[in-house]
Amino acid sequence: MVVGAGVAGLTAGWRLAQAGWQVSIFEQQNCIGGLLAGPTVAGVNCDLGAHRLHRAALRVAAVADVARTAPLEPRQRQGKIVLRGQQLNYPLSPLGLMRGLGLTDGLRFAADFVRAPRWQAHGRADTDVGFAQFVQRRAGLAAYTAFYEPYARKVWGLDPAELSQTCAKQRLSTAAPWRALTGSAQRHQFWVPRGGFAMFIEQLRSKCLGLGVSLHLATPVPAAALQGADAVLDSGHLQRHAPELLCDHKGLHLLWLQVDGPALADVDTWYCPELQFAFGRVTQVSHFCPPQPDQPRLLCVEIPQGSWGDSVQWAAHIAVLSAQLRQAGIVAASNHLRLRQQHFLPRVYPLHRRGWRATWQAAMAAAVADGKTLPIGRQGLWLHCNLDQAMHTAERAVAQVVAGQPAAAWAETAKQFLELQVRD
Ligand SMILES: Cc1cc2nc3c(=O)[nH]c(=O)nc-3n(C[C@H](O)[C@H](O)[C@H](O)COP(=O)(O)OP(=O)(O)OC[C@H]3O[C@@H](n4cnc5c(N)ncnc54)[C@H](O)[C@@H]3O)c2cc1C
Fold first, then answer.
1. Residue 176's pLDDT is what?
2. 234 lines ligand 1 (CB under 6 A)
3. Is 387 a pocket residue for ligand 1 (Cβ < 6 Å)?
4. Does ligand 1 have an atom closer than 6 angstroms to the CB of 281?
5. Does residue 221 have its Cβ closer than 6 Å to ligand 1?
6. Is the CB of 1 under 6 A from ligand 1?
7. pLDDT at residue 95 in the model
8. In what order do the strands lie in the sheet with 232-234?
C-alpha cells in the first residue's frame, strides 16, 4: 500500500509493481501530483510554483526512466536576484556581487567572509549551534545581516536563533550570494519536461496503471487497507504516526497575477530575499509551462507564510504587492496587474527548530513500530527536498521492502537523507 500520489508515492507504486507486488495507492486529494499538481489558471496550464530539474536530478534512476517517455528539454537559466535596488544575474558571479554591493560594502563583506571562523561551523554533528551562529561562522556577520537573517525571518517567521543550522545547510542559495558564488558554474542550466511537469506526473501515473496498480483518489488512508497491507510506503505527513510530537511546517501562498501592458524582461525567475518584499520568488509562467497563443501573461508570486498566517485574502493587498513588484523592477508602472487565482500550500518548509533531529528520530521510531511502515518523500520524512530527491527516497524504500529487510532498518537508512542539500 502506498499513501499519497505525489512524485514519491507514484514512484513507490511503480517500482513496487515492477518488482511484482500488488499495489494500491491512496490519495486524499481528488488529483495526483501533490506539490507537482498542475492547476489551470485563466485557461493556462500552470505548475504549483515553478519546477525545474537540476543536473544532479538526471542521475536519479526514476527520473532518467521517466525522461525516456517524457523527454526533458534543457533551458538556460534567466534568473535575477533583487538586492539593494538592483537586479543581478542569478546565479551570482563574484563580479556581479561586487557590482551589486558597491566597492565599500563589497570589501567589507569579503573581509568578514575571510575572517569568519568556518572551522567552527563544522563542529560535532550532534551539536546544533542554530541558524544564526552557523551562518555567521561560515559567511561572516555582514552577509548574515544583509541576506540570511531577513530571508530566515521571511520564510519561517521566527527569530533565526531559534532555527536549526539545518535550515542554513539545506537551503540558502536564494539568500546566499556566498554559496551561490562557490557552486555557480554548473547552475546555469536546468531541465523541464517537454509539455511541462503535468506530463512528467502523467507518465508516472501511466507507468503505475500499466502495471496494474490501483489508484484511489479522494481517499485518505482507510484503516482496513492499512491492516491488510504487507508493507506501507507512506508519503503523508510524518506527524500522523506521532501526534504528540511537533513535526510542523510553514506554508507558502501562491498568487497568479495576470499582467497586461508592456512585455516584461526576458527573465524566468526573480529571487527577492529582502524583507521589504512580501514575496521570495516570482516566476514567469510562460518560461516553464508552454503557453498557447492568445493566452494571458501570468506571473506566479510565491509568498512564504512567515508571519502572514494561512488564510490571507490577497485581493485586499494587491495594490501593495503591485507597488512592491514595481519597486523590485519586475513590472513597469504601465503594467496592469490582476489577481487571477490564489492557493495556499500548507506544508512546504519544515520548521526545523534547534534539536529537531531528536524529534525526527522519535517520530520515525513511532512510524516503523508496526513493522511494515516506511515513511518516504518530503512530508513522510519531514524533509526539505527536491522532487528527484523525494523520488530517490521512494526508490530506496522499495529496494528495502523488496529485499525483505525489516521496517525498523529504514529508520536508520533514512538518516542519510537528513544531509540532503536542496537545489534551487
Ligand atoms: C513552490 C515550489 C517549488 C518547487 N520547485 C522545485 C524545483 O524547481 N525543483 C525540484 O526538484 N523540486 C521543487 N520543489 C519540491 C518538490 O515539489 C517536492 O519535493 C516534491 O514534489 C515532493 O513530492 P512528495 O511526493 O514527496 O510530496 P507531496 O507532493 O507533498 O505528496 C504527498 C501526497 O500525499 C498526499 N497525502 C498526504 N497525507 C495523506 C493521507 N493521510 N492519505 C492519503 N494521501 C495523503 C498529499 O495529498 C499529497 O498528494 C518545489 C516545491 C514547491 C512548493
1. 47
2. no
3. yes
4. no
5. yes
6. no
7. 75
8. 214-216, 24-26, 2-3, 232-234, 373-375
From residue 264, give the alpha-carbon distance in Å to each of 268, 297, 406.
Answer: 10, 9, 55
Q: How many CA within 13 A on the CB side of residue 390?
A: 27
The pLDDT of 44-71, averaged and rounded, is: 93
Percentage with pLDDT > 70 across the chain: 94
Q: Kindly report the protein residue whose alpha carbon is nearest to atom 20 of ligand 1.
A: 387
Whole-number Å distance, alpha carbon 334 to ligand 1 midpoint, is 37
Assigned CATH topology for domain 249-348: Polyamine Oxidase; Chain A, domain 2 (3.90.660)
Mean pLDDT computed over 100-108 = 79
Report the distance separating Cα 252 and Cα 147, nearest Å: 20
How far is residue 128 from each of residues 164, 188, 358, 364, measured CA to CA in Å?
A: 6, 32, 11, 20
Radius of gyration of the chain from its Cα atoms, rounded to whole angstroms: 22
- Weakest-pLDDT range from 125-129, 328-332, 346-350: 125-129
Q: Are the beta carbons of 329 and 82 closer than 8 angstroms?
A: yes
Residues sharing a CB contact under 8 Å with residue 392, sequence separation 6 or more, in sequence order: 60, 62
Please state, rounded to an integer, the average pLDDT across all residues of the chain: 90
**pLDDT tens per residue across span 68-93:** 998 999 999 999 999 888 898 887 77
Fold of the domain built from segment(s) 2-74+189-245+352-419: Rossmann fold (3.40.50)
Distance 8 CA to ligand 1 centre (A): 8
pTM value is 0.93
Give yes or no for a contact between 339 and 318, defined as CB atoms under 8 angstroms apart: yes
From the CA of 380, give the closest atom in ligand 1. 26
Domain boundaries, the chain: 2-74+189-245+352-419, 93-183, 249-348
| Residue 319 alpha carbon to ligand 1 centre in Å | 31
d(CA 50, CA 328): 19
CA of 5 to the centre of ligand 1 (A): 9
Assign domain 93-183 to its CATH architecture: Orthogonal Bundle (1.10)
Q: For the segment 195-228, what is each residue's pLDDT rounded down to a tens digit? A: 889 999 999 999 999 999 999 999 988 888 888 9
Q: Is 392 in the pocket of ligand 1 (CB under 6 A)?
A: no
- Residues 241, 373: contact at Cβ < 8 Å? yes
More confident residue, 18 or 419: 18
**Overall average pLDDT of the 178-183 stretch:** 50
Ligand 1 midpoint to CA 36 (Å): 6
